[in-house]
Amino acid sequence: MLTNYILNKNASNVCLCVTLPQISYMRIGVNARLLITNQPEGIPRYIFEIVYHMAVQHPETTFILYHDRKVSYAMTFPPNVLLKVIPLMTRHPLLWFTWFDILLPFYLKRDQIDVFYSGDGFLSKRVRIPQVLVTHDLAYLHFPQHMIQSHVRYSKKNIPVFHQMADAIITVSETTKNDIISQWQIPEDKITVVYNAVDGALPETKGDISKKTEEISLSAAPYFFFVGALHPRKNIKNLCLGFSEFNKKNNRKYRLVLAGRYAWKSESIESLINQSEDIIHVGSVTESEKNLLYQKSEALVYLSLFEGFGIPILEAMKLKVPVITSDCSSMPEVAGDAALLADPNDINSISDALSKITQPEIKQNLIQKGRDRVQDFSWSKSASITYALIQSVFKKT
Which end of the chain is more exposed for a tag (fewer CB within 10 A), N or C? Predict the structure, then answer.
């Protein structure tokens, strides 16, 4: 505390004036459109964990989460987090425009928001407060054929604008950061990398173990594991072909277990899976089932063509499961030296990696490196970086 003594020459008394430290209490608006389930994954999980940890670290700050529908999830936030609904479900580009550029500005002004934090890559073009944008990847530019075309057209028109107008940009990997700089010549000091993690605050929902999952986990047949939505960018076809090549050389000793829903353009993937008795699709799984399948597997095989991060890599490492992942995009950055890398476009490379990881010495070495590597990622640390960035753009206003 600073104390100033002021002498008034025209008075006989000395006035003691106390100057208190100046504290700025921010009101942060959060784009929470995707935060609608009890067990969010990917982008909504990122939003939950960052906001939760920021709120815990800064109880003096108010966080207002803006949803686009009524939600009934049981996720528990600290008391300085408020939930509000802007009643228009955003399922189409026209509705995105209406929600962000017509409705959102009114709510932000009404609630006296100081900074808008958007964790899913969208901004409003019509607000006058600082905005912090999170970009997970630029998949719409690199694999537009794997997306809904109306979404691609919207993204090509608007995403570059969002990056130019953002007061600060966050990416989840150096790979995405470099991609943004390459695409639009954004100044490097405008972009901050804030990683995902797996040491989350969200409690795992304990679900029943299905009979199919239980049978797989108890079977004497060893298996490799993949988890994620099944669509072309996840490279399921080459994974299956590389596995089949490997399994032929091993007298069909192994199985490949795929967990996740069939997503877009998955008809040929489904057909390929159905043709093999050694490839098992278990569909969507609970957290309990997923963890069990991880722990009983020989390795995680995550050979996506393109990822902004790749959370399953860290999930496997946390559970002491060795990892095979792609040698491209952000995956080598996340894995470090704690995974075997393979060319996702080369079936022989995939087969060779599967052969290597069955060797006990290699497997144990990767497990130990994975346990060390996963410690480099922390939601608390990522939230601290994010809050400091939000605070810096607020102070400039």
Answer: N
* CA geometry: angle 147, 152, 158, nearest 5 deg: 145
d(CA 383, CA 134): 13
Calculate the dihedral angle through the C-alpha atoms of 299, 199, 47, 192, rounding to the nearest 10 degrees: -90
CA 8 – CA 5 distance, rounded (Å): 10
The residue type of 266 is: S
- Secondary structure (DSSP) of 219-280: -SS-EEEEES-BSGGGTHHHHHHHHHHHHHTTTT--EEEEES-B-TT-HHHHHHHHT-SSEE
Contacts by 245-251, CB closer than 8 A, 24 or more apart: 245/347, 245/348, 245/350, 245/351, 246/350, 246/351, 246/354, 246/355, 247/278, 249/351, 249/355
The residue with tokens 């490949």 is 256
Find the angle CA(66)-CA(41)-CA(314) to the nearest 5 degrees.
135
Q: Which residues of 79-101 are buried (b: 16+ CB within 10 A; e: fewer)?
A: ebbebeebeeebeebeebeebbe
* Look-up of token digits 């809050």: 387
**Which residue in 332, 329, 314 sits closest to 375, CA to CA?**
314
How far apart (Å, rounded) are the C-alpha atoms in residues 249 and 333? 31
Q: pLDDT tens digits for 159-196?
A: 999 999 999 999 999 999 999 999 999 999 999 999 99
One-letter identity of residue 383: A
8 Å CB contact between 304 and 329: yes
Contacts of 340 (CB under 8 A, 6+ apart): 322, 323, 324, 325, 353, 356, 357, 362, 366
* Residue from 179, 132, 187 nearest 309 by CA: 179
Cα 396 to the chain's mean position, in Å?
Answer: 28
Paired tokens of 333? 């950055």
Q: Which residue in the block uniquely carries the two structure tokens 């753009």?
A: 393
Q: Which domains does the chain have, with CATH numbers?
A: 27-197+378-395 (3.40.50.2000), 211-376 (3.40.50.2000)
* pLDDT digit string, tens, across residues 53-102: 999 999 999 999 999 999 888 789 999 999 999 999 999 999 999 999 99
